[in-house]
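pinned: reference chain
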Amino acid sequence: MRSRTGPALVFALAGVLLTLVPAPADALRACKAVASDKDGVVRVYAKGVLDRADFEWAPDLDTLFEPFANAGTCLKGERARGCLLGAEGTPESTTPPEGCVIYMTDGIGRCAARIPGCTPGVRTVDEMSDEVVALREEVDLLRSQLDAILSVVRVDDGDLVIDTRTGGGDVRIEGVNVTVDASATAELSGTAQATLRSSASTAVEGSLVSLAGGGRPVARLGETVSVDCSGGPCGGTVVGGSAVVLVP
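pinned: its structure tokens
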């Protein structure tokens, strides 16, 4: 009796042969995904990216693949290094897929990478991402301003010192009414000219008031000057003013 080789048997044998054929050495491989402990950003790595234009990712195989946010810079030759799921600084860049697995393709081959330490579950990307970005920008601005303040403010032997000479800036204290109150000595000093200005009235109070400067110390306020130095010396020159009260 002559045996027959049916179509089903032919396809089965073909499938076995295909599984025995090893994948080419330069196929998409060594896929890895890591969530940074520092900033939470998910970064993807892979080797054997043959078609860089088609290197894309998806959170599962039922979802359309999409390009990496920084595909233009994270692909070098046939390697992917630090490819991002979303633009840097956005919630998408730090949100892992629900299954904690990132599927990749270069249009020729596919591979998958599980994110270590990731817990599977439903992800909710912050719908107020614009507000979050704006808040981060405001925080960055406040941080830079604080750094600027700390660069000129220091505590020296218990004294609070504001020194802007290094940066060449000025120190300005502005207000409708400005009061400098010292129980011992209130001192206004400058190597060239020490100037105290006010559009209304200025009171410098203390047991000893000293206007001291290497050049010409001046307190300027307007048209009329009222000076009371009955209890001690008034150094320097007082010029003009709607009301200048020096209380020794």
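why pinned: The two ends are 130 Å apart (CA to CA). Helices lie at 7-20, 71-74, 129-152.
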